[in-house]
Q: What sequence folds into this?
């Protein structure tokens, strides 16, 4: 008697990979800034530049990585990304000269520009394929993927803190070891019988189909308002803690709370809303919750203490859990399935660019103090609500068929 599997093997591999990616990455990232300050010594002013280069090399290249996924399938991109991340972490472990540090950090960023679009595109295709094969709703698979990533983000810093007793070198080498395991897993566990990408798909990257796709651009703009709101975990939240308590000691606990909420609540929440709301409706609800998170914080400021910050984190993460899986599902219903990779990458690149531009005025707003900045920030996701396009769910059928060339 053959026991049924809960999810396709490919979905298991992709979800496990996302967990491992974040464990390896977050074992190193939280400690990178302090290490760079010590490594660069008197040139510590370069730390911000180095960290900015990492973000640019990652987010800015997502669209290129997505285009390569469409042309060659995700497997080569994942393997290449793992090799680059291994090289970057090993380089960071031993780098002392400024040029070596910069080169290693760039490798770390470029790595994600290869494997993240590949894995995100493939989990979307696999989610659609499973749904039309009688399996769980695609948002269910995508919610598992999000929860696995947050579990890795929760566990990674803890592992990194333990490894730091052996020095930053030990943390970097352990992070590299995680990516070695992912690399070997993808080489060994690649599902058989998948055909490679067609030659027709192997064409130079052309941004015109992306820029001419109005529903996609609306989705990307709406998603950008979410991402800019979420980014306030790193801007507005520390500012509020300084105001309320005079320090940022509680920041680590609030970050841990945010990850724990996703790990424990993402799947039950998806089950609750998936039968009641369409994907665009779920995105709009999530954006409304984000707006409430800022408005509620403004209303609670007079209480002082950690109440405003805690309520902000809980509601912000609730909004995130609604927006992210539904956006990924929505994308599968909007775009040409043979171009899903480039659109997945473009979603990250465009929203990352808009967040970069929006963070400048957002940071200036926070200097005003009082409830006004929070109320102004609450208006951003409300704009996003108006931008969310409607989705033709039947387009996802073509993506399901297209997924047969997965991991080619």
A:
């Amino acid at each position: 008697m053959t026991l049924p599997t809960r999810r396709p093997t490919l979905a298991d591999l992709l979800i496990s990979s996302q967990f491992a990616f974040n464990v390896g990455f977050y074992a190193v990232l939280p400690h990178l800034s302090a290490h760079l300050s010590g490594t660069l010594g008197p040139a510590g002013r370069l730390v911000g530049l180095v960290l900015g280069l990492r973000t640019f090399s990652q987010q800015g290249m997502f669209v290129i990585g997505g285009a390569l996924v469409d042309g060659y399938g995700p497997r080569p991109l994942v393997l290449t990304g793992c090799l680059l991340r291994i090289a970057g972490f090993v380089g960071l472990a031993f780098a002392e000269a400024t040029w070596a540090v910069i080169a290693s950090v760039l490798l770390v960023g470029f790595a994600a520009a290869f494997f993240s679009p590949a894995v995100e595109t493939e989990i979307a295709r696999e989610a659609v394929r499973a749904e039309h094969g009688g399996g769980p709703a695609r948002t269910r698979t995508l919610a598992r993927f999000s929860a696995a990533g947050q579990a890795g983000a929760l566990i990674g810093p803890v592992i990194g803190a333990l490894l730091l007793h052996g020095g930053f070198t030990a943390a970097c080498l352990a992070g590299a070891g995680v990516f070695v395991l992912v690399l070997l897993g993808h080489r060994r566990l690649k599902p058989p019988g998948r055909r490679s990408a067609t030659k027709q798909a192997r064409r130079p990257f052309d941004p015109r189909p992306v820029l001419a796709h109005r529903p996609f651009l609306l989705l990307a703009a709406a998603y950008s308002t979410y991402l800019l709101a979420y980014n306030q975990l790193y801007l507005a939240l520390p500012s509020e803690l300084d105001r309320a308590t005079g320090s940022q000691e509680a920041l680590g606990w609030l970050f841990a709370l945010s990850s724990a909420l996703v790990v424990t609540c993402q799947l039950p929440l998806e089950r609750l809303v998936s039968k009641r709301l369409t994907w665009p409706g779920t995105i709009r609800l999530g954006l409304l919750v984000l707006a409430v998170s800022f408005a509620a914080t403004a209303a609670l400021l007079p209480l002082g203490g950690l109440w405003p910050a805690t309520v902000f984190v809980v509601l912000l993460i609730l909004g995130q859990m609604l927006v992210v899986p539904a956006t990924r599902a929505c994308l599968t219903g909007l775009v040409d399935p043979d171009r899903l990779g480039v659109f997945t990458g473009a979603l990250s690149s465009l929203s990352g660019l808009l967040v970069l531009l929006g963070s400048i005025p957002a940071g200036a707003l926070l200097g005003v103090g009082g409830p006004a900045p929070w109320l102004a920030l609450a208006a951003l996701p409300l704009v996003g609500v108006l931008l969310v396009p409607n989705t033709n769910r039947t387009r996802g059928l073509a993506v399901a068929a297209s997924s047969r060339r997965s991991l080619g």
In short: DSSP finds 17 helices and no strands in the chain.
